[in-house]
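User: Please fill in residues for this 127-position structure.
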């Protein structure tokens, strides 16, 4: 897909990073909460997707803070959250709503969340 992804994780070579890379994403990882938000907000090209492995950074409560910060700054990328606090996947329809996946989500569930969160992303072509 060629999506540009900021992944906030304590496992830069973990399952989430590997899955995103297997989808031909350009994955940039960060292991510090505020550094990831700063990168997201200060990047002139912009990211297509922000993925957060929530558990290592304060769980869903920290994810809510991150999303509130991004919305306040009028950031335009989509958000996908993974946490052991989620019992079942949530694939909301709102563009400002995060896809929420249990940390132990299957490959098929992760792919469904990825496709859902980027469902209206325009494909970019280089000529």
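Assistant: Residues filled in for all 127 positions:
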């Amino acid at each position: 897909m060629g999506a540009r992804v900021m992944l906030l994780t304590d496992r830069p070579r973990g399952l989430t990073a590997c899955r995103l890379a297997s989808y031909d994403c350009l994955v940039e990882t960060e292991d510090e909460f505020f550094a990831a938000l700063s990168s997201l907000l200060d990047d002139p090209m912009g990211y297509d997707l922000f993925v957060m492995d929530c558990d290592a950074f304060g769980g869903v409560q920290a994810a809510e803070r991150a999303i509130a910060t991004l919305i306040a700054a009028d950031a335009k990328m989509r958000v996908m959250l993974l946490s052991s606090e989620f019992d079942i996947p949530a694939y909301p329809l709102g563009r400002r709503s995060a896809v929420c996946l249990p940390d132990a989500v299957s490959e098929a569930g992760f792919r469904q969340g990825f496709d859902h969160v980027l469902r209206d992303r325009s494909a970019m072509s280089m000529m």
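For context: The chain is about 35% helix and 20% strand.
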